[in-house]
């Protein structure tokens, strides 16, 4: 399974994912696509358009529009590969969540993605928003199960080593302590 999770809207590149998967699925009948997330009222037409594209391609049985879930970790665990095709993003947790589940990531070069993903080790960072470029990377993984397994192991190890919750909490506490120390210095 290849997944794309998050709000369904143009900003999140859900359309790029759908187009890339359509390209890839034509060549590979073994994979399917999972889109998990919610389309708000203003983006329902966008979601309908995506479902229409899938239907026109004759792939509605291989695309799952799962909606919003509270047990999203189970959906990540069911994936082989995750795609984060955002057009813009601040930080973006979905690549970290995927890698924490042992799922390699293909992502566009927005927000902090290039700092989160180790290129060629835990996933791939793409320049631009071309569905055929996403599809090319997908096909590379689709055709090489051992590559996918190697990236999967690296993804999980990377998150455990570099994004441990204790380390993140200590870094945040360090920032607060520095601010407090600076404030005390100003009161002299």
User: What structural class do the secondary elements suggest?
Assistant: alpha/beta
Strand content: 5-15%
The biggest sheet amounts to: 6 strands, parallel
Q: What overall form do the CA principal axes indicate?
A: globular
For the terminal residues, how far apart are their CA atoms?
A: 61 Å
Strand ordering within the main sheet: 3-2-1-4-5-6
How many extended strands? 6
Q: Enumerate how many helices there are, as a single number.
A: 8
Description:
The chain has a six-stranded parallel sheet with strand order 3-2-1-4-5-6, sandwiched between helices. The chain contains eight helices and six strands; from the N terminus they run βαβαβαβαβαβααα. With 188 residues, it is an alpha/beta fold. Strand 1, helix 1 and strand 2 form a beta-alpha-beta unit. Helix 1 crosses helix 6.
In a nutshell, what does this entry contain?
This protein is 51% helix and 13% strand.
């Amino acid at each position: 399974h290849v997944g794309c999770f998050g709000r369904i809207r143009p900003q999140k590149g859900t359309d790029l994912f759908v187009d890339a998967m359509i390209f890839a699925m034509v060549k590979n009948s073994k994979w399917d696509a999972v889109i998990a997330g919610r389309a708000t009222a203003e983006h329902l037409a966008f979601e309908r358009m995506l479902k229409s594209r899938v239907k026109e391609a004759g792939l509605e049985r291989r695309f799952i529009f799962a909606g919003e879930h509270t047990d999203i970790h189970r959906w990540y665990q069911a994936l082989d590969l995750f795609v984060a095709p955002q057009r813009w993003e601040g930080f973006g947790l979905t690549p970290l969540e995927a890698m924490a589940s042992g799922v390699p990531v293909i992502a566009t070069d927005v927000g902090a993605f290039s700092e989160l993903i180790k290129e060629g080790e835990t996933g791939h960072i793409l320049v631009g928003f071309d569905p055929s470029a996403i599809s090319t990377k997908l096909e590379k993984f689709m055709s090489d199960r051992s590559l996918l397994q190697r990236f999967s192991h690296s993804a999980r190890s990377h998150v455990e080593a570099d994004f441990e919750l204790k380390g993140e909490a200590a870094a945040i506490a360090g920032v607060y302590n520095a601010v407090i120390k600076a404030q005390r210095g100003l009161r002299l």
